[in-house]
Amino acid sequence: MQIDGQIALVTGAGSGLGEATARRLAAQGARVAVMDLTEAAARRVADDIGGLAIAADVADPAAVGAGFVRVSADLGTPRIVVNCAGIGSAARILPRDGGLSLELFERTLRVNLYGSYVVLSHAARAMAEAAPLDADGARGVIVNTASVAWQDGQIGQAAYAASKGGIASLTLPAARELARWGIRVMTIAPGLFETAMSAGLPAEARAALEAGLPFPARMGKPEEYAMLVQAIVENPLLNGEVIRLDSAVRLQPK
Fold first, then answer.
1. Which domains, and CATH codes, for the chain?
2. Main-chain phi, psi angles of 176, to 5 degrees
3. Over 90: is that where the pLDDT of 124 sits?
4. Is 160 a catalytic residue?
């Protein structure tokens, strides 16, 4: 799919992977809706790229639905939707204090997995009602974000890995179901990236993580995630697959 002239919506676009993706799509000629939980963050990016700022919690179907209505009214039907909104979490199943981490587990799945599904559902509905863009009958592309933790989850990542595993697992059935409308569904599973989550790591912990990266032996840059989003959108045969973007890393148990 050609990016130039298309309407795109990126969640979690007020920072990190989402911000880099919104900026890259705009640089390629797309008109971008910047959706983020924080209005100020969404507006900062949207103002920079000439986009539309939308404040919404992805786990709130009504807020996401209102956001899609606004995008359609102000920009047009989004043909590119990228799910980058998510939260990190760390808690053992059996913590030392003897408590249970049920609340954290539920919240992590609600934001990461349920939130991604909410956005995917609204995106699919909007795209399915639009006219095809080419001779193949393509109507749009949805890119979700998992994590290498869905396969290499470390101790303390049960909730996070489960949420990202759910995103990875829904990729193929979603792609198969939406194929009749010409909608592709892909998922990127990033490894260790320079984001707000990694920025707070102590230098020693960061060095230990980077030492386990085969090549390149450094954390990924958000722009490199955005490069893959662009490639997915532009290549019509990429569909129903999870792509690891990870320097060939395999996370150790802890």
1. 7-193+221-243 (3.40.50.720)
2. -65, -40
3. yes
4. yes
Point out the least confidently predicted range of 89-98, 188-197, 226-235: 89-98
Per annotation, catalytic residue among 114, 117, 160, 225? 160
**Per-residue tokens: 181:** 């409308």
How high is the mean pLDDT of the chain? 94
For the chain, how long is the longest CA-to-CA vector? 60
On the question of pLDDT at 205 being above 80, the answer is no
Cα separation of 148 and 244, whole Å?
A: 7
* Structure confidence at residue 154 as a pLDDT band (50, 70, 90): confident
> pTM (2 decimals)?
0.94
